[in-house]
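Long-time lurker, first post. I've been practising inverse folding by hand and with some scripts of my own, and I keep getting stuck on stretches where the structure tokens seem ambiguous. Below is the full token string for one chain I'm working on. Before anyone asks, I'm not after the true native sequence, just a reasonable design that respects the backbone. If someone could post their per-position residues I'd love to compare against what I wrote down in my notebook.
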């Protein structure tokens, strides 16, 4: 009885949250039904595929100020999905913000950053051969994250921010259900992830800021366990029981788009949702969120490992030979792991005056076995992302707008 009451109250709170944001749940199903050859499978299996979509229309007034209308499909901030690399976007934001709030003479996002090792499984960093000066920095790590979703770069910004600082700061910005509690790829324990490496910043050989190892004092895990699927691979064995996600990261889709809106339109969100970033910080984020890896010199990314549409799932799917529309730029962060495929994007067409936000997640794991590296990204996930991006783009192309947007602030010279 008590458990039933908790579930009811949770659903009620969730419904109240979505209602308060005035999210329309009619449009997206109607749009997908208009192209059954592309979306009927998705519509028929949406629950099993754990599909969620958030689409936000943007309308401008005569002064170019934006207003927003949001549409959802199966949107549920309590339904778990593994957020994969989408957690790296807030890492960039919070690292830039922390630099500003430290307010130390000689400390900036470009100051050389040195990572030490003090606890088990810690690894040090003394430089970065992919940067112009051979040194690591918050800015260079952020570039690697935003262009190609580098895992080590995320881990270094996670260590700089600290697990407690990371989660508590996001909560103050209204991201109440988000929890980011571990590094990526390195497979550390709960205790190891609580402890972050010591870090120092040096300019001309002189220490301008030093941060000791930070240990989180509390945990952020949910009360109820989260278990999905029917089995998972551990070593060489198949374990025939659901895979446990309880101690893994979570970043609800509605909160992902909320963060994106705060980054793209900081002056159009409530003050309590804005981050302590300067205009040049926003320009930095916008530039590298939209820069294709093949346009970068430092770091240098080239074929065949990287291609122009790399990490641009909406509109282009996973196509290595995709024909890039030169008028379109996608400001986004993607993720893919354990069969979950995600993209959280602001998409613009400078020539047609189109802009919209679109975020989506889908589970591509038909055999329901996790950790086996056998996922259905190519047959289910990437086609869905490409088709969804094109569907909304086509709808936006025909949607009447009283005032076309001035998008000049989102145009950049991608030369380094």
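-- Answer (accepted) --
I ran through it position by position. Result:
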């Amino acid at each position: 009885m008590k458990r039933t009451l908790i579930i009811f109250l949770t659903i009620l709170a969730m419904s109240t949250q979505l209602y308060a944001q005035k999210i329309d749940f009619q449009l997206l199903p109607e749009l997908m039904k208009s192209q059954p050859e592309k979306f009927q499978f998705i519509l028929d299996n949406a629950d099993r595929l754990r599909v969620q979509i958030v689409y936000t229309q943007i309308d401008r007034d005569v002064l170019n100020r934006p207003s927003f209308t949001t549409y959802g499909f199966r949107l549920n901030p309590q339904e778990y999905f593994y957020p994969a690399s989408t957690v790296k976007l807030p890492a960039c934001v919070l690292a830039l913000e922390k630099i500003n709030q430290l307010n130390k003479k000689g400390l900036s996002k470009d100051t050389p950053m040195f990572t030490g090792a003090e606890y088990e499984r810690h690894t040090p960093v003394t430089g970065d051969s992919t940067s112009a000066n051979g040194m690591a920095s918050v800015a260079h790590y952020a570039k690697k994250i935003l262009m190609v979703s580098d895992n080590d770069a995320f881990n270094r910004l996670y260590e700089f921010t600290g697990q407690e600082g990371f989660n508590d700061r996001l909560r103050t910005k209204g991201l109440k259900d988000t929890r980011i509690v571990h590094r990526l790829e390195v497979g550390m324990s709960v205790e190891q992830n609580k402890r972050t490496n010591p870090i120092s910043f040096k300019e001309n050989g002189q220490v301008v800021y030093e941060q000791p190892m930070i240990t989180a004092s509390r945990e952020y895990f949910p009360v109820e366990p989260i278990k999905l699927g029917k089995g998972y691979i551990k070593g060489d064995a198949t374990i025939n029981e659901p895979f446990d996600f309880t101690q893994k990261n979570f970043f609800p889709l509605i909160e992902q788009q909320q963060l994106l809106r705060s980054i793209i339109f900081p002056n159009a969100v409530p003050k309590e949702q804005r981050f302590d970033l300067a205009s040049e910080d926003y320009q930095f984020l916008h530039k590298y969120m939209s820069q294709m890896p093949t346009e970068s010199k430092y770091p240098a990314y080239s074929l065949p490992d990287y291609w122009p549409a790399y990490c641009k799932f909406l509109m282009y799917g996973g196509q290595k030979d995709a024909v890039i529309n030169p008028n379109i730029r996608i400001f986004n962060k993607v993720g893919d792991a354990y069969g979950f495929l995600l993209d959280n994007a602001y998409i613009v067409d400078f020539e047609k005056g189109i802009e919209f936000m679109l975020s989506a997640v889908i589970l591509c794991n038909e055999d329901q076995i996790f950790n086996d590296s056998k996922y259905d990204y190519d047959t289910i996930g990437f086609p869905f992302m490409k088709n969804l991006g094109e569907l909304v783009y086509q709808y936006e192309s025909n949607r009447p707008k009283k005032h076309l947007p001035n998008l000049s602030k989102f145009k950049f010279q991608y030369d380094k």
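A couple of notes from the structure itself: The two ends are 60 Å apart (CA to CA). The chain is about 35% helix and 20% strand. Happy to go over any region you disagree with.
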